[in-house]
Design a protein that fits this description.
The chain is mostly beta strands and about 425 residues long. It contains 2 helices and 39 strands. Strand 1 and strand 2 form a beta hairpin. It is elongated.
């Protein structure tokens, strides 16, 4: 096509006016539409290309595992038909016992992560349910002759709105005292059998619990009384880990000579509450703390410790006894000696022995006798470390005799007799 100014060869429909080609209105409209479509395509592609990424919500990365719900009817734990979806729970599954459902734990290998009981969970005899997370009971739990093991590292809890009555409780969480299983429920929680502490710390905030055999707290375990009540039987209690009392009541032993012994690198830490011991409180623990436990020996900063509530007749160990190698730190609290040592050859009731152990008494009170002390009882004291306060009770007017030099840093309150050299 050849074109010169003033002379036009029209290839499309249009009008000629003064040597300029004017496209028809129809052609102009079509061109406008095509251009707009092209520009809108470019704009959309540009927006897609340069659109910033949406913020990533943490919950989208770490979603809770879906719950395995029981069917409305329930059934044996081991049967796939008991569970919606036909899958028997594993240690990584959250379990929900549905309202109205009745699930029976019929195998010793039953396990789950977290469990919520809205219906009914019934344990067969001689089985163990392993729970790696939290326990929530809002329904009905029947323990029978069974155990529940709480396992896995990290903190977890026992709670709910319904009464939970365990038979045996086994705590095996992590490999040291840092993993805590806390009992803190709106309704009562207790056990009728035994408590076994292997690893981790059992924190008893609510409820009433018991040991039915002589417990030994290992170096990797702890028992923390934080408001609950703890009972025991006709046996002694050995602490090689961390026994901590901040509130509540602990009753150790029911018969004569039942004792609480803290040994090796164990720590008895009393920060409040009440500790009742049928016999004596004995401490041989000292040295470097172990496994995240904040000390060794005995540390008392508050609370009340009642000793010899039933009786003791050991001829070589005091009712309150701290060996030469043990650590002792008393900054507060009251230690009450209810009955004197009944050994045939009289022996010390308070016996704090000097040696390699670190012993500091900067506060607190030793009280001899209370309203339940036999009249005119004779107590003996021998302490290489100065005590802070010493009180002889006015209730039974006991006698206290020194079997060695004694320094009192603060207050001596005599409502009975203080004997020097037996006189």
């Amino acid at each position: 096509m050849n074109c010169t100014f003033g002379e036009t060869y029209i290839a499309t429909r249009g009008k000629h006016r003064g040597g300029i080609i004017l496209p028809s209105l129809k052609g102009l409209f079509v061109a406008f539409i095509l251009i707009n479509l092209l520009l809108s395509q470019i704009s959309v592609k540009a927006q897609i290309a340069f659109q910033p990424r949406a913020a990533i919500i943490p919950s989208q990365l770490f979603q809770e595992p879906p719950k395995l719900n029981s069917t409305a009817k329930g059934g044996p734990w081991s049967e796939a038909s008991t569970w919606v979806g036909g899958v028997v729970p594993s240690a990584s599954d959250d379990v929900n016992i549905a309202y109205g459902a009745k699930v029976i734990v019929d195998i010793n290998t039953a396990e789950c992560l977290n469990i919520v009981i809205n219906g009914s969970l019934i344990m067969s005899d001689a089985v163990d349910l392993k729970v790696y997370g939290n326990w929530v009971n809002n329904g009905t739990f029947t323990a029978n002759a069974s155990s529940v093991s709480f396992k896995g590292s990290g903190n977890s809890s026992i709670s709910g709105q319904s009464t939970t009555l365990f038979k045996d409780i086994i705590v095996d969480k992590g490999s040291d005292v840092s993993s805590i299983l806390e009992v803190n429920s709106l309704d009562s929680v207790s056990n009728t059998g035994n408590i076994t502490l292997l690893n981790g710390t059992l924190k008893l905030t609510t409820g009433t619990f018991q040991f039915n055999t002589a417990p030994i707290i290992p170096a990797t375990a702890g028992l923390w009384l934080a408001g609950a009540t703890l009972n025991s039987g006709n046996f002694s209690f050995i602490n090689r880990g961390w026994l901590r009392i901040t509130s509540g009541t602990a009753n150790i032993g029911t018969h004569k000579n039942n004792r609480l012994l803290t040994q090796f690198t164990g720590l008895l830490q009393v920060e409040g509450g009440t500790l009742n011991i049928a016999g004596r409180l004995e401490n041989t623990a000292g040295g470097n703390p172990n496994n995240l436990i904040p000390g060794t020996g005995i540390s008392i900063s508050a609370g009340v410790i009642n000793l010899n509530t039933v009786g003791s007749d050991d001829k070589e160990t005091g009712t309150f006894h701290a060996s030469a190698t043990s650590d002792l730190n008393i900054s507060g609290g009251t230690i009450v000696l209810r009955k004197p040592n009944a050994a045939l050859v009289p022996f010390n009731d308070v016996y704090i022995i000097p040696g390699t152990g670190k012993k500091i008494i900067s506060g607190g009170t030793f009280q001899f006798g209370d309203a339940n002390t036999p009249d005119r009882s004779l107590f003996l004291i021998n302490s290489a470390v100065p005590v802070n306060n010493l009180i002889i009770s006015s209730d039974s007017k006991p006698k206290v005799s020194l079997t060695g030099p004694l320094a009192i840093n603060n207050q001596l309150s005599l409502n009975g007799h203080l004997l020097l050299n037996g006189h």
